[in-house]
Design goal:
Radius of gyration: 25 Å
Number of strands: 12
Number of helices: 12
Strand content: 15-25%
Helix content: 40-55%
Order of helices and strands: HEEHEHEEHEHEEHHHEHEHEHHE
Shape: elongated
Length: about 325
Amino acid sequence: MKKSFKSGLIVLIIVILVSAGITVKTIIDSRNPVVTVTYASHGNVSNYNPEIAKGYKKSYIAAVYIEGTIQQSGQDYDQNWLLNTISSLKEDKNNVGIALYVDSPGGAVYQADEAYLALMDYKTSGKPVYVYQGPMAASGGYYISCAGDKIYANRNTLTGCIGVIFGSSYDLTGLFEKAGIKSETIHSGRNKNMFNYNEPVTEEQRAIMQSICDECYEQFVSIVAKRRLMNYDDACELSDGRLYTAKQALENGLIDRIDSWDGMIKDFSENELDMPGIKVVTFQKERKKTFMDYMTGAAKQFATTKAAASLGLPESVIEDINTKDYFPMYLYK
């Protein structure tokens, strides 16, 4: 009996230690994202002179990757890592330019603008920024792309989506009443609880939210107009929230060229920098999913599915309600 108790105790201690180790690892991964640095020379180099190249042997182009939803921190994206990387590259005398790879559906206005401003500040050092758009560079992804001296896209890229979504409001008061559910939020200020699911949206509240949305939109369009050398009205015509194919974006002046990543690097190194064969150093935020990520994700999905089924609502509605903790969030997406 005592032996069985000791064995059980040992197993319990091991489980606790393993769980603690997973938790610590999760914290470390989230606070200190791994940077994958690889060195590569691009192909199809022309006019390469080994003797001249010795003069820029230590120099390099930084290939910085922006991937995933633009937010403070997520599975694929980390704002602090991105800003710190750009700032460090600005001060690095061996770095001669940034080749920015963008694959994002958009995200938060605040973080998108921060990244854009960081890149514009980087360029005050005299170093250029070239942007390559991957499968998607929409909304906030296009916003950040506007910092580029040139914007390239793959022929299958979807880009643009210039517009602002403030978010969605669900008025569930009727459903709650029917189900016998009472939900009340104690608040002071008649608009403090606006856009919460347990109160209808008033016309005043709708106007308040629309004014914020419009201001963000005007900022976005102004940047597009300035950086793409358009007048504001023409930029507005293009900024109706739609996605553009690479061909459509090129015809409308939203990008400069349809090409491959290697084609952009070749143009960047040879024509912009006059440094054929220069090194390309890749900076890419990586974070592998931990056991806790899978566990918490599964638990959250189970709770969402159960709540949606019990209320007779789509799961997307429940997921949206759960994100109200981050209110207000203004999205480019």
